[in-house]
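Posting this for the archive.
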Amino acid sequence: PGYDAMFSAAAETNQAISCLVNADGLPEIDRMCSVHPNVTVVIDHLGRIGIDGVIRDSDVDMLCSLAKHEKVHVKGSAFYALGKDKPGHSDLVPLIRRVYDAYGPDRLMWASDAPPSLAVETYEDQISLIRDRISFLSEMDRDKIMRDTAARVVFFQ
């Protein structure tokens, strides 16, 4: 009942809900989005897929399946805590590609997760994966992911 009240309030007040959940919480997000299709939802930190060091296809499948809900967005952030958690984060590129293919750049946004992230890596480590090193992203995609999507979704521009 608590989630239903939260989603109902978000629908009534035109607020976005930002969800910090692990992959096992994604089915509940799916259920709530089915009941409340007009609520804007942002899944933080790629659904924390790989938080234990393992990126499971079933978790990625579940995150990608949420793209059927037009108002669901995904934040690519906390790279330092996902997968092999090494700066460079190249092990996350296949995950990011699948999420990109499911959602497109208009429903993806980057975030640093600072200040916690700054305890383990530099800001450059955090930003460079999306900004510089993912070859399938166009400049327009990067602009959307790095700036435009968040501006539109979070600030309702």
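The longest helix spans residues 139-154. The CA atoms of residues 11 and 91 lie 37 Å apart.
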